C-alpha cells in the first residue's frame, strides 16, 4: 500500500501529472477522431485513466497516459486496434530485456529523427494559424499562447497556464457582447438587428433591445450603459431632472400653502360666499397630477428587453433588470421582458 505520509509531498506533482495526462489523452483522441470520423467520450476517458492510475498506484505502477510520439508512430505504421498496442509493448519488452544493449551506442539524434518523421503531421498544424486568423482570432490567440507557454515552461505548467488563459478569453467574450436594436421585417413576425438589415423597420414608440451574451455580474453594468446608448435615453440625467422638478414643485406647493393659510387668517371674513378653498385645492391637485403624468413625446412608450440569448441569470443580473424596470418606469417608460428561458423565468420569480 502507498505510504500515506508522502501524500503531502507528492500531491502537487500528482495533480499536475493528472491534468497533463488527461489533456494529452483527450487531445490525441480528438485529433484521431476527427481524422477517422468517430467520437470520443471525455467522461469515459477520464474514468479509464482514473481507474487505471488508482489501481496501478496501489501496486507501485507508473502513472499512465498517452504517448504522443509513440501514438503517431503506431498510426503511421497502420496500427489501429489494441492488438497493435499489445505487439508494440511486447517488442519494447524484448528490447529492454535482451536487445537493448545493441542500441546503446546508437546516437540519440538518429532516434530523434525517427520520432520527428512520425511527428511531422503534428508539426503541420502550424498551417492552421492562417485559417484560425480568418475564422476566429480568439481561437488563434489561444493556440499561439498554448504553444508559447508549453515551449517556455514544462508541459504541466504550460498546459495549466493555457487552460487559465482560455478561461479568461471566455470571460472577456461575455464582457464584450454585441448589443443591438431589433426591427420588424415587413409583413412578418420576424425581428432582426436594424444595423445589419436595411429592410427592417423599428416599431414607433417601442425600443427592442438585445444582447448577444448572457447577463451576469461581469457585464451587468455594461448592459445598462448599452441600453441607454442604443435607446438614446440618458436615464441618469432624466431621473435627476425629474427629482429636481419634483422637489421644486413640492417647495412651491408648501410655499403657496403657507401663504394661503396666512391670507386665510387675515381675510377670513372676506371669503364668505366664495367657492370652497378645499375644492380649489382639489382642482389644483388634479391639474398637478395630470401635468406630472403627461408623457414626454421624445421618449418611447415601452422598451422590450429580448432575453433569448440569456442562458442564466445571477443575483446581480436579476437586480440589474429590476433596476432598469424601476428607473425607466420613473420617467414613464414601460419595460417588458420577452424570450426568457425557463431557468431565467423561474429565477426572476424568486
How is this structure best described in words?
By secondary structure, this protein is of the alpha/beta class. Among the domains are: 1-66, no CATH class; 179-235 and 298-349, 2-Layer Sandwich (Transcription Regulator spoIIAA), CATH 3.30.750. The chain is built from 14 helices and five strands. The chain has helices at 7-36, 42-58, 68-76, 82-99, 108-118, 120-123, 128-135, 137-152, 155-175, 220-231, 235-266, 277-292, 315-330, 342-349; strands at 179-184, 191-193, 206-211, 302-306, 334-338. Strand 4 (302-306), helix 13 and strand 5 (334-338) form a beta-alpha-beta unit. The longest helix has 32 residues, at 235-266.
Quick recap:
With 350 residues, this protein is α/β, with parallel strands linked by helices. The chain has 14 helices and five strands.
